[in-house]
Amino acid sequence: MSIGDLDTLAAQVRGEVLQQNDEGYDASRAVWNGMIDRRPGAIVRCTGVADVIATVNFAREKHLPLAIKAGGHNVSGKAVCDDGIVIDLSPMNNVHVDPDARRARAGAGAKWGAFDHEAQAFGLTTTGGVVSSTGVAGLTLGGGIGYLTRTYGLACDNLLSVDLVTADGRLVRASESENPDLFWALRGGGGNFGVVTSLEFQLHEVGPMVATATVFHAIQDAREVLNFYRTFNEAAPDELACYAMIVNAPEGLPDQDGKPVLALVGLYSGDLEEGKRLLAPLAKQGSPLLAVVDGMPYAVMQTAFDAGNPHGARYYWKSQYLKGLDDALLETILKWAGTFTGEHTIIGIEALGGAQARVDPGATAFVHRDVPYSLGIWTGWQNPADDTANIAWTREFFDAVAPFGAGAYVNYLGEDESDRLGEVYGENYTRLVEIKRKWDPDNLFRLNHNIA
Ligand SMILES: Cc1cc2nc3c(=O)[nH]c(=O)nc-3n(C[C@H](O)[C@H](O)[C@H](O)COP(=O)(O)OP(=O)(O)OC[C@H]3O[C@@H](n4cnc5c(N)ncnc54)[C@H](O)[C@@H]3O)c2cc1C
């Protein structure tokens, strides 16, 4: 890519075209996972659809690798590339809410914090991720799990339409009535089909105050508490979501310095008082180190995990859906909790089911509808000298729990896991290949978990 070529591109776009040594280049090429250190030939900070069209055409005509960056949160770091072009969508971060129609249209660079901020002004929102700096686009295109999944389905189940720039540089809309094949593929198929420029969502009445539970237990009590957690979830209504997580003890917990603890985190998305009543048993089980069940603004709850996942730390993830919470699985998880490693590590169990499970597996590209839980081994640390040991710990732990697996979630796949796409898409994979052939026959959009 010559300087002259980039001058031509810069003349066609309104946003900045950043090259090495330009101010802002390093900030723009950085992603959440500090293990990823890529140097694109140019980063185009797109300000609108016209910039995206010009950049897609440029990359196609010059045969350049093209990466798409929205929130930059994907652990695989595929949002950035070496040498080629990165479309940085972060300037396109507007969220427009229509409270009467209960709809919101988010620019592809918007993050969940911005989305909830705008929608909660009207007591509305939709299913989103549980960390406010995660991108709306990347999360939704892969599916989108959050506290509201059991009530309102995945983030992608709440999509009404998507605007997208195709490989041949056209702006198209995908919805149930326009380009329905593309709309099917975009709900779970990730960034394989074009550059999404905005996403329109159905909103629901949630909050602004919701009932939440935050409970910590010493790790030696975890077995008993996880047994209770399993039974509690079996009886829980759809409006109630509860995650179980093994994390490093937060400051202030008595006698837990340097030890992992078990956290139960719950949210009820319906009536506040009913939610407090239904969440109360979480605080009464065993002898918690700390237990709070109370009302909290939904938008605040959506930032509760932000500090535990610092931007730029080193991360290595392995995850899978679970058939259930077998005794033998819980024993295996607790065995590995005994060798817990990494300052930012989370062993996370997300309770699914409810509305997600009521959608037909063939209705969208997202096939895993009836899985009750997801297990994440989300290892995080600061010192590069710990890379080898922490990656080995994660892989060995994952090998030990793999027999309990029931498929994989594309948004949690690491850089080295593109060979798990069969596990991600199952019987829907063949249709995804057909739709990929139609919309991106030359695989311009290949820097992703690629449907080749
Ligand atoms: C701290 C943390 C918390 C998380 N919490 C949750 C959670 O609660 N629920 C959940 O489901 N997931 C969660 N995730 C996973 C998350 O869904 C994925 O990492 C997702 O890919 C992030 O989207 P992004 O836009 O931030 O990422 P990016 O890295 O910018 O994008 C990821 C990929 O998506 C594609 N893509 C992004 N935007 C576009 C676009 N506009 N057009 C076409 N393709 C695009 C590209 O292929 C890109 O490489 C979490 C991740 C992290 C790091």
Describe the structure.
By secondary structure, this protein is α+β, with helices and mostly antiparallel strands. The chain has 3 domains: 3-88, Uridine Diphospho-n-acetylenolpyruvylglucosamine Reductase, domain 2 (2-Layer Sandwich); 95-206, Uridine Diphospho-n-acetylenolpyruvylglucosamine Reductase, domain 3 (2-Layer Sandwich); 209-418, Vanillyl-alcohol Oxidase, Chain A, domain 3. It contains 14 helices and 18 strands. It has helices at residues 3-12, 25-29, 49-61, 112-120, 136-142, 149-152, 180-186, 222-235, 272-284, 298-301, 327-337, 387-401, 421-425, 429-439; strands at 17-18, 42-45, 66-69, 85-88, 95-98, 103-107, 124-125, 159-165, 171-175, 195-202, 204-205, 209-218, 240-248, 260-268, 290-297, 314-322, 346-351, 373-381. The strands form 4 sheets. A 7-stranded antiparallel β-sheet has the order 15-12-14-13-17-18-16. The chain starts with a helix and ends in a 13-residue tail after the last helix. Bound molecules: flavin-adenine dinucleotide (FAD). The site of flavin-adenine dinucleotide (FAD) has 34 residues, from strand 3, helix 5 and strand 10.
